[in-house]
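User: Structure tokens for this complex, please. No commentary.
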Amino acid sequence: MIEVDHLTKRYGAFTAVSDVSFSAGEGEILGFLGPNGAGKTTTMRILTGYMPPTEGTAKVAGFDVFTDSLEVRRHVGYLPETVPLYPDMTVRGYVRYIADLRGVSHAADRVTDVLKIVGMYDRRESLVRSISKGMRQRTGLAQALVHDPPVLILDEPTIGLDPHQTLEVRDLVRDLGKSRTVMFSTHILPEAEQVCDRVIIIDKGQIVAVDTPRRLRDRLQQGGRLFVRINADAPANTVIKTLSKLAAVATVEPYQDGYTITTNAGADVRARVAAAAIGAGWELIELRPLAMSLEDIFLELTTHTPEMGHLAGSERVR
Amino acid sequence: MTNNQTNAAALPVPAIEGTRFSAKFLIVFRRELAGYFTSPIAYLVAFAVLLLNGLVFNGDLGARNGVTQTDGTVVLRWLAELTIFFAPLMTMRLLAEENREGTIELLMTLPVNDTDIVIGKFLGAWAYYSVILVLTFVYQGILIWLAPPDIGATISAYIGLWLFGGAALAVGLLFSAITENQIVAGFLSVAILMVLWLADQSGSLVANRNVAQLIRTFSFQSHFVYSFAVGVVRLDDMVFFVGVIAVMLFVTTRLIESRRWR
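Assistant:
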């Protein structure tokens, strides 16, 4: 449904998106992850026909965004980052206006339907200026859904919402993704992890990773990490030295009130660590594997460390 | 937001196929016109126009008081000058607000041509201006009741004022497109309309007669005060105002389009 091929967008000398390629199939929820200014919004704006690419092509629902812009716009529902609302219209009036501009048939019924889907039906006669941030977001979503588009592009749909509203929007997106292609950007990582089938991580205009959230985690976690807390009479240096000597241990570094141990790929060193600690006469208080969240992956990929997967001494252990 | 699934399943068949040749500008037009009637600024403009016109009308009537014949165009000539200030008040919001609220991004990703948006907005403003013109019929009614003036000149002045108003609104719309600040849009339009209105006096500023004449050709005043307002309906004056409207709307469309290339 979405095919992006070597897409580049330059603003003067500044390259916002550089040689980006990816695709999304039917019924797929694609997460678009990246820090601010990474090129997420620019990519989405190109996909929705708002601006043309400098180089490369993009197809949405089989239509080229540049040569067939109007057709693309017919097949896409778009919620920009700043929810585009008219403060002096009612919720229903606003959605109806967009439905009419889109030429939706049976507009009145359709507007009622989408307002029920996003849970704004009870507030349909409220002025847009008077509704809460979460409701504004949902009204924006109603607008994007009103023509029942096969492709839905949502730019940070959960930004600025309270946790309860975030959950609601997340559920809604997951639901919508069952019957259509959804591409949504976020910088809230657990969200991408929970909602998306696939995640694209973009930084400085370039794609740094594309995979399922699970496989991304696996890929970067070849060398496992352990957190160990030891009550020892010996100084920290001795402990580090002792643990470092164990087979398959890559690095040992102090962290908070314990140590983090990075192991070589595929090795389980827990038994050896425990044995070594007890053998030395120390008290082993805690020993647990550190799961790497998408957040760590994200930071790892976007902070440009020379070696990927080398995560020892991370400040981000939770 | 419960029962999302059941609701989603109950959706009617995709309604994407739009009416391709329907006049989308009418939908924009309807919203803009309705917008005037829900915004305080429109009522303030109407109120101010009626108040200021009423003062002029009253003064003029008192001065004539049986001495000279009544003149229905006095109020309209005064209204033309007021239009320089009031037209920008009516148009400054039109596109500047879309720029500021980010709704322009939505409009530009809908299957709607930019031309439809610009024409719809312009017609909305022009329709509201027409409503204000209709309000001034009350003065004409009073004149006809008291002592009928030259009706021909009055009708001619109305035609001229209506066209001039359209041109002024089109200028205002253009400046509304270039900024997201309504105040800036308003001030720029007033300034430009002022210059265009007063271009008539270029003779006293520019020594070269031909240049002065050329500048004068673009004066709004010379195409209204000395023709329509004295009962002369000339084709070239009409073409002038219609031309200004067309050029302004064209440039505005291009300005909106240029966002895609920035």
